[in-house]
């Protein structure tokens, strides 16, 4: 079994140090346009991050088993050479784009990913606000296994992708050089992704590269001031509520649905989807805490 270093675990001390430094930078030089840090919000983000590490250990077993089985069945193999690594990382980033985009436009997937968007602040600690139900992404990387990429290589490239995205969760960096903004994901691009304005919803899904968004029509530049969070915020710093609030909302909608077609809509249509007017729906519980609807073209 191939083994690669767990770069995320090794990077945790650096994450903490950079968060502290960013927090100090706000104390020394506060910009009125930046929302900065909040004690309860940061504590929630850190708790969600620690919880995700524990949860990922549980999800890793069935995912690794499925990948190993498929890898054993496919006759193809991608050699680990100096020139194949950039190609595999590129392919992984492409799969990440479609995974990320799907997690915004399919509600049962959004129920997991909404955790990462639940903060109304945008700083390095927000990068650590990760879901505890990370079982929803693995299927998007099956094509890499099918073409012969070793599961351990897929996992390592995923860690590289996640590591890259840590630094783009900040308001302290305005714009990178134009050539870099054209190719790579940056703080400016990712601020748009975390914004709740209608013109910014469901934009800039790229991990390392922003070129996928430019190619597939989901790119939006940062123009107006970003307002972070959800279109209807959770209103709680309770980590359990943050982790599972959308699943609870889905359960309420499923109970209130009048048909299996409506139940399928509540699960697989975009967040915020409702049956067409005139169709009978039993009285529902409280409104969903995000109320987000998809604006992705196509």
Kindly name the structural category.
Answer: mainly alpha
The major β-sheet equals:
none
Distance between the termini: 42 Å
| Amount of helix | 40-55%
What is the radius of gyration? 20 Å
Low-confidence stretches are 280-289
Strand content: under 5%
> How many extended strands?
0
The run of helices and strands is: HHHHHHHHHHH
Count of DSSP H/I helices = 11
**Mean of pLDDT:** 92
Shape: globular
GO molecular function: oxidoreductase activity
Region (Disordered): 277-298
Keywords: Lipid metabolism, Membrane, Oxidoreductase, Transmembrane, Transmembrane helix
Transmembrane segments: 7-28, 48-70, 138-164
Topology:
Elements: H1 7-28, H2 39-73, H3 84-105, H4 107-113, H5 142-146, H6 151-166, H7 178-183, H8 187-194, H9 211-215, H10 239-256, H11 260-268
